[in-house]
Amino acid sequence: RQKIKARREGVDHSIQCIGIIGAGLMGSGIAYAAASKGIRVLLKDISLEKAHQGKSYTERILKKRIVKGESTASEVEGILENIQTVSTYEDFKACDLVIEAVVEERSVKGQVIQEVQQYLRKDALLASNTSTLPIAGLSTNSLQPKNFIGLHFFSPVEKMTLVEIIKAKETSLECVHRCIDFVKSLGKLPIVVRDNRGFYTSRVFSTYITEGLYCILEGVRPALLENAGEISGMPMGPLEIADAVGLDLVCHIHQQVHQDTGEEYSEVYDVVRLLVEDLDRTGKKAGKGFYEYPEEGEKYLW
Ligand code: NAI
């Protein structure tokens, strides 16, 4: 802990205004994390309405803090004022850093990167929050690969401290250092990882989820599986982690890895797909996945 505290000190606060593209689960969480540290946030999605929905995620977290006595109404107002929803990339001229957090589709990310960079200042950094796609591949869409980097936050962003920083071959060290400082300024812990598919955490956790699903197909009771996960020191059981990531994203990533690398497709994901496509159970964000998440009261296994 002391080491972490020491590393958090001496932060260069050169990133004062960030742009976020994609105001879904991750984009709105990153907006909250930055705005609550006094950083100005410009939030964009495919429509202003969607961007507003992302901002209301922050509002909901903050209202809970007021109820718990952790924040005052005026503090909350100040944080919300730091988040501005925008409809065009023109506004991103003011940004020191832009983070894309759109859907995990290589083509959509590529298009967004190409579009936004025309509006960025030369010294502005551009980051992807991808959970699996190699940064070197995405950076081919960038005019300034030295300023292109991976910044991989985790869900729920307001609670998770770790952020992976992914340096591609052409990413400059200056860019890496500025991002390390940015992550520290959010009170989070940066780790620099290799530019592999899935980096570190997605590789480890996808194995945890896949093996957990196999255990269930082999007859292990879900409650036992979840308890065993927590007792062994993991933050959550594999099913709860899958719910937190989003079951739609979990399926998509598995399918994409299979297509890109030829790695074997696990039939356990057909079960997850059923939950998503037939029952609309996409995980915690929808209030239902492997667990039920009632508005009031504790979650429980479905
Ligand atoms: P999400 O589906 O909740 O949000 C994606 C948002 O992007 C949606 O609001 C969508 O309208 C928007 N979008 C799509 N195309 C767009 C475009 N062209 N311009 C602007 N906005 C656009 O997805 P989520 O879960 O927030 O994931 C976003 C990224 O973060 C993905 O790359 C994912 O792999 C990554 N990630 C997700 C984690 C998770 O636990 N869900 C954890 C870490 C990374």
UniProtKB/TrEMBL annotation:
3-hydroxyacyl-CoA dehydrogenase NAD binding domain mapped to chain residues: 18-195
Q: Where is the 3-hydroxyacyl-CoA dehydrogenase C-terminal domain?
A: 198-293
Source domain of life is Bacteria
Coiled-coil ranges from the UniProt annotation? none
The record's comment on protein family reads: In the central section; belongs to the 3-hydroxyacyl-CoA dehydrogenase family.
Q: What is this protein called?
A: 3-hydroxyacyl-CoA dehydrogenase NAD-binding domain-containing protein
Look up and give the organism this protein is from: Algivirga pacifica
